[in-house]
Amino acid sequence: MDYNDQYGHKDKMYYLHRRTEILPFVPHGIKSALDIGCATGGFGALLKETFGCEVWGVEPDTVSATEAQNNIDVVINDLFTDNMPQLAAKKFDAIFFNDVLEHLQNPDKALLACKKLLNPNGVIIASIPNIRWYPVVLSLLRYKDFKYEDAGVMDRTHLRFFTKKSMIRLFEESGYSVTKIQGINKSNYKYYKLLNFILFNTQQDMNYPQFVVVAKQPA
């Protein structure tokens, strides 16, 4: 099954998110960005509007890639690999993986491939779903279930699952230094608050469906 067959069932909204919650993590003054898994280019367009930067994107979904050409500077309709002739002469100030790494068989290889694409002070910014999100843990503990869904943390197209701790390990073992990791899209489940209180406020990570990782290559 190729990519377009595997993801063809996705609702159109899956490809339209602008991801405004990522903007606070973007360094000011970036001149160039690469959005891996750029979908229809909504986030890339937001980057261009906010920072005035050049934005390239890689998107394997053909329909989305075609639409993205109207929103960003260059779109490569392909899967991201470590050998892309279109990127051979390019360097970027920021490379984005907005809920993408969990869809890859080898996310570590994708991060390694980015090293030659980053400017000396460039950063990788990745939004990654958190498998320790309270509703997922509740489903395991109370309902004894691991149920896939069409989107979200339990998206059926996810190949990898991460906790905050294993996100950091993924980047560090790939040769990066994590400069920031922060939960986004906070939820407020009343039973989570009780659980966190009982466990001496040690479970704050369970309140976030995603974390954003900002990482760079060590000096």
Topology:
Blueprint (H helix, E strand, L loop, with lengths): L2 H5 L24 E5 L5 H10 L2 E5 L3 H7 L5 E3 L15 E7 L8 H8 L3 E12 L4 H8 L22 H10 L3 E8 L5 H9 L11 E7 L3
Description:
With 219 residues, the protein is of the alpha/beta class. The chain has a single domain, classed as Rossmann fold. Helix content is 26%, strand content 21%. It has 7 helices and 7 strands; from the N terminus they run αβαβαββαβααβαβ. The chain has helices at 3-7, 42-51, 62-68, 107-114, 134-141, 164-173, 190-198, and strands at 32-36, 54-58, 74-76, 92-98, 118-129, 177-184, 210-216. It has a 7-stranded mixed β-sheet with strand order 3-2-1-4-5-7-6, with helices on both faces. Strand 2 (54-58), helix 3 (62-68) and strand 3 form a beta-alpha-beta unit. The longest helix has 10 residues, at 42-51. It is globular. The mean pLDDT is 90.
Can you give keywords for this protein?
219 residues; alpha/beta; Rossmann fold; 7 helices; 26% helix; transferase; methyltransferase activity; Class I SAM-dependent methyltransferase; SAM-dependent_MTases_sf; methyltransferase
CATH architecture descriptor: 3-Layer(aba) Sandwich
- The H-level CATH homologous superfamily, spelled out, is Vaccinia Virus protein VP39
The portion of residues forming beta strands comes to 15-25%
The amount of helix comes to 25-40%
Oligomer: single chain
Order of helices and strands: HEHEHEEHEHHEHE
| CATH topology grouping | Rossmann fold
Compose a concise summary of this entry.
Helices cover 26% and strands 21% of the residues. It is α/β, with parallel strands linked by helices and 219 residues long. Keywords: Methyltransferase, Transferase.
